[in-house]
């Protein structure tokens, strides 16, 4: 038997190593939950490594349409996996609802405020962290929550065009979020948040994880994802109020295997997320699960 040339051996080794990885791009509200899920999966599947990248769902969608290499995409909203599906960029029949996202108002414990919507009117709350609604579903849900609570009001004539009907009359699902590039105050009246304060401003994170970091280090208040708020990094220094599901844009969080990536280890991780153990981990981090 002829020996395998060393160049071919390295190529085969590299292929084997690549096939033992599961590359995941995911919404940043999954930062803690998916990390634990990946570790649990790796413990049961020696030799398989789950490589995680976190960011905003909208930005990942754009990157995936431009050729970003990944095996699975976890989105904080169903629209982006559906759009990828429509473009033929996913494995047929693999899009699944894995959780319903939940929102919370978080406050620095040192403020001494009772957590809840009225706390945001306090004169000490002069900056509010929120994810950028242009590409972050949790930012969109955050704005719809503030609107539901009467803390912001839609302007009658915002700088938008070609809408099916006046902006104030649009349902949350119909708002052209990706066009809202001028900041919240170009489209909403924030007088209820500004009254009685020397100043007030929104501070935007590129994703919900960045918004949480800004709330923790700079603004002392944020409209954040419950799964992040429950983690000790925010739960210990802060207090929070959980928003009712009907009070904001519904976040039906979907994940999907990307086209050409239905390798055994990828399919196994896809199934593990939906298993009893996977669901238990997601539940522990504050996600509402399908069927519950």
TrEMBL record:
InterPro entries referenced in this protein's UniProt entry, alphabetically: AvModA-like_subst-bd, ModA, ModA/WtpA
Superkingdom, natural source: Bacteria
Keywords of this entry: Metal-binding, Signal
Signal peptide: 1-18
Gene3D superfamilies to which the protein is assigned, alphabetical: Periplasmic binding protein-like II (3.40.190.10)
Record flagged with keyword Cell wall biogenesis/degradation: no
Family label: Belongs to the bacterial solute-binding protein ModA family.
NCBIfam families: modA
Name of the protein in question: Molybdate ABC transporter substrate-binding protein
Species the sequence originates in: Thermus tengchongensis
Lineage: Bacteria, Thermotogati, Deinococcota, Deinococci, Thermales
């Amino acid at each position: 038997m002829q020996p395998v040339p060393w160049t071919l051996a390295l190529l085969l080794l590299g292929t084997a190593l690549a096939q033992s990885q599961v590359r995941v791009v995911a919404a940043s509200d999954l930062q803690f939950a998916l990390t634990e899920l990946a570790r649990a999966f790796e413990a049961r599947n020696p030799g398989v490594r789950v490589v995680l990248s976190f960011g905003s769902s909208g930005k990942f969608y754009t990157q995936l349409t431009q050729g970003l290499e990944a095996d699975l995409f976890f989105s904080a909203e169903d629209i982006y996996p559906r759009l990828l599906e429509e473009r033929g960029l996913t494995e047929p029949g693999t899009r699944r609802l894995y959780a319903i996202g939940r929102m919370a108002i978080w406050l620095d414990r040192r403020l001494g405020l009772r957590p809840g919507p009225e706390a945001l009117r306090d004169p000490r709350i002069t900056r509010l962290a929120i994810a950028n609604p242009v590409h972050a579903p949790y930012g969109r849900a955050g704005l719809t929550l503030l609107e539901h609570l009467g803390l912001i009001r839609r302007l009658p004539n915002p700088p938008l065009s070609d809408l099916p009907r006046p902006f104030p009359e649009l349902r949350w699902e119909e708002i052209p979020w990706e066009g809202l590039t001028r900041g919240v105050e170009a489209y909403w009246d924030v007088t209820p948040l500004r009254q009685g304060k020397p100043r007030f401003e929104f501070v935007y994170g590129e994703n919900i994880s960045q918004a949480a970091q800004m709330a923790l280090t700079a603004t002392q208040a944020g409209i954040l994802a419950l799964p992040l708020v429950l983690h000790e990094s925010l739960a210990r220094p802060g207090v929070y109020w959980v928003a009712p599901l009907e009070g904001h844009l519904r976040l039906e969080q979907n994940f999907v295997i990307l086209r050409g990536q239905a390798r055994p280890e990828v399919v196994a991780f896809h199934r593990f997320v939906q298993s009893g153990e996977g669901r238990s981990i997601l539940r522990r981090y504050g996600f509402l699960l399908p069927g519950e």
